[in-house]
Amino acid sequence: MSAATRRPASTAPKPPTSISASCIIAETATLMGTYLITVATNAVIQPRAKLDSTYGPVTIGDGCIVWERASIGLLSEVEDEEGIISEGVELGKNVTVEAGAIVEAQSIGEGTVIEVGARIGKGSVLGKVFDFPHSSALLDGTDTDDRIQHCKITPLSTIAPGEILSDHIVVYGQNVRRVGKPGLEDPRESTHMKQLEVMRTLIPNNRAKWQ
Fold it and tell me: Distance from CA of residue 76 to its chain's centroid?
């Protein structure tokens, strides 16, 4: 390729970041935007995953796994849509976002699993609420201080913008809902920790690129 036809290198500025020294960010992961992107302790951002803070801050909690081609962050501005409040996207501790999933939620509670190709709408809340701006109680009347998270969104499922899900809710099929079996948090966390350890050995870390 001649100098005249060579593509210019990207001049897009890096987003502001707060990145833990113990997280893994793959070489081909993308961090973009103008708001702060926070990646916490032991989180893993896989190749071709995207964290986009163009329209609000993005927070990736301790031990989260963001799989390839997953997108975390608002994809458009929030324009006073009725019932939708969003100040960015926050993933709680040990959340898993699988390949191709799109997450625009206000917050995702600890231990939640969002499976392949699922879409989580703008301003939605899954499990525990992070500083929910309107009330200390959710629509089901449960106080936020008593919640323990762990939702599961199965492949290709969709959560509507502004929707609120209680803990342990499983969404599957044609938007069918059921309450998952509680008491499995410890074995699931153990499995999650093993996944993190494997990924830390397999994925080359390019964290310094974004610091």
Answer: 16
